[in-house]
Amino acid sequence: MLNTGRIALVALLFLSAGCGASQYDLPPLPPESSWKHVELNPVSLERNDTANFLAAKQATLQLYTELQGKAWTTAGNRLSSETRLLLGEGDGGSVASVLEAGQTHIAGRTFGFEPVRLLLLPGVQRIVDSSADLGDGAIVDAEAPAGSELRTAYLEEHESEVRKELFLVDAAGKIRKIVWIREGSDWHLHMRDLPLLCVEERETTAP
């Protein structure tokens, strides 16, 4: 939901006496008479949010097509730089080869995965913009029973002009949250860790 009305943008400085003297000389707070009020346009904000949703949704559908069509290079380029590093790019290989092999190496351990299951969710029926529009289906990549604090934290949204969160829902009502971030002019799927329920550890065969 968007907040309407006027929002006073005020910068307040808090100094703690227990922290000792500061090494910086900061300017005093300007008089209240000089504070400015900025009116945020809820229509414009909603329009931008809708545009970001449509762009992220389109990128999600394209990534599905690329993974299912085994277009590994194109799919790899749709991942954020941090995600590519997480999957092992820079260790003598490319993210495309990691996706094609369906396994990655982390801290001397080998993990196998299905690309669609790791990055997205197989059998998706709906792509949802807001957690408020979700049912009470199980979360596929976290142990989060209904009504738990973990589930509430998982469904909480943290978005900005360069970050968009979507919820994927399959035919059984299972839920998976994915994050898209804007790098340059394009949207890229962003992961900071590998969901344990989407990977399996494999034994490394000695040469």
Number of strands: 9
- The helicity comes to 25-40%
Strands of the biggest beta sheet: in what spatial order?
5-6-7-8
- Overall pLDDT: 81
Distance between the termini: 57 Å
Radius of gyration: 22 Å
Instruction: Give the overall shape.
Output: globular
Low-confidence sequence ranges:
1-23
Biggest sheet overview:
4 strands, antiparallel
Tally of contiguous helical segments: 6
Instruction: Give the SSE string.
Output: EEHHHHEEHEHEEEE
Q: Strand fraction band? A: 15-25%
The class by helix and strand makeup works out as alpha+beta
Overview of this structure, please?
The chain is of the alpha+beta class and 207 residues long. Helix content is 28%, strand content 22%. The protein has helices at 42-68, 72-77, 81-86, 95-101, 115-119, 149-155; strands at 6-8, 37-39, 103-106, 109-113, 124-128, 163-170, 175-183, 186-190, 199-202. The strands form three sheets. The chain has a four-stranded antiparallel sheet with strand order 5-6-7-8. Strand 6 (163-170) and strand 7 (175-183) form a beta hairpin. The longest helix has 27 residues, at 42-68. The protein is globular, with a radius of gyration of 22 Å. Mean pLDDT is 81; it is low at 1-23.
